[in-house]
Structure formats: C-alpha cells, structure tokens
Design a protein that fits this description.
By secondary structure, the protein is of the alpha/beta class. The chain contains 12 helices and 8 strands. The protein has an 8-stranded parallel β-barrel, surrounded by 5 helices. Strand 1, helix 1 and strand 2 form a beta-alpha-beta unit. Helix 7 crosses helix 9. The structure holds 2-phosphoglycolic acid.
Length: 250
Amino acid sequence: MIKPVIFGNWKMNKTMSETIAFINDVESKFADIDLGAIMGIAVPYTQLASAVDKADKIQIAAQNVHHKTSGAFTGEISVGMLVDLGIKYCLTGHSERRTYFSETNEQINEKNKLLLANDIVPIFCFGETEDEYVDGQTEAVVATQLEKGLAGIDGADVRNIIFAYEPVWAIGTGKTATPEIAQNVVKFVRETIAKLVGEEVANVVAIQYGGSMNPGNIKELMSQNDINGGLVGGASLEVSSYLDLYNNMK
Ligand code: PGA
C-alpha cells in the first residue's frame, strides 16, 4: 500500500505573512489527526525557512534548485542551501520551468541526482503538451522525460522519488484529464519505471497526478489503481480548499 501524497504548488504566490497564517491554520486543523498521508506545500524560496520552522505535520518543499552545487549563478539557490534549512522535498522538471526557463531533461536529471545525494526527495514532474497530446505523442514524450530524468540513477535511489505526471494542457486550465486518461498514462509511467529499474521499485513508488486537481475531482482521480496522490496548484492556495483536498481524497 503506497501512502497517499498530496503537495500544493504555490508557484509565485503568497507573502510571508500569508504563508505563516496558512500554515498555522492548517496545523491547528491537523493537530489531533493521524494523517495517514503525506500532506505538503511547495512554497516560494523566501518563505522556506519560516515555513519549515512553523510546519509540523505539513511537509515543506522547495519549488526549484540549481543543478550545480555552487558558483557564479546570480539569483540561484543550491542544494546545500536547501539542506541547511532542513528541506526534505523539492520539485524538479515542472512544465513551467521547462517552458519559461528552458530547463532541459539533462539539467533535470542533474537536479534529481543532486537532491537524492543530499537526502532530499525530488518530486519529479513530467508530462506532454497539448500539441503532443493531440498528436498521440503522450507515451513517447513521457518515456523520454522519464528515461532522461532518471539516467544514471539506480533503483535504490529511484525508490525515493515522488513522480508527478502533469499533462501541460491540464495545468491551470481547469481542463482536468479524465480519470481514465490519467490512469492510463500513470500506469504507463509505472511500466516505464519498471523497465528502467525493475518492477519491485516501480510497484512501491508514489505517482501523483497534477493538472487542475481540486476537492471536487480528487477522489475519483485517486481511486484509480496507479494514482497515489496529487500535485495541486490553484486549489491549494486557500486553507479551506487545501483541507478539502485532504478530506475528500478517500
Ligand atoms: P494547477 O497546477 O492545479 O493549478 O493546474 C498544477 C501544477 O502546476 O502543479
């Protein structure tokens, strides 16, 4: 049984005071609950230290990390800086980073390796664009992103990765993949991981769906055989909606 894992992805939203208020509110609601799931949020860099300090049951993720360990990269944040703050999770390969910041599969692979070497769990995102979807390229695109993103990483490390299938056409559009579409691709993801590092690992890794997931569709998506969680943007920004993701997932 794979533990459900839900992360909010706040992207470039919320100030420090809004972040602290959100965490305090959610923590007070979670205080007496045995969650039985990993509930997290990926907050902007400037809030990481305070968020880790305030969070107890909520897991805090970084939204990005640079693929080199240090050096002349103005404006960037290294894995050592995340370790120093006690960060345990970090997004990699998000489609907005691939699209707006030209991140390559090779850089994403370096990030995955660096994070794993530093005991930070990559939440490794991948997924096809609308054109690729319409063109029937979904499996080919996803297979390439997985192969390149996992290159040189052995099964023992892949076991620690959280996978996030996010069809780009469903992100922030309100167009969720149907549970059947999502399940079919996520099943393919598990089969691809099995080909790369073996079935034993593929059967225990958590695979999230992301793309306009919300409290209204989370249950049906998560009831699919291979979907173990969600990466949620818009619907993770309000406390009530975030709590309902948790309440409604089963
Ligand atoms: P969305 O974003 O839930 O707003 O579609 C998901 C994501 O980008 O991870």
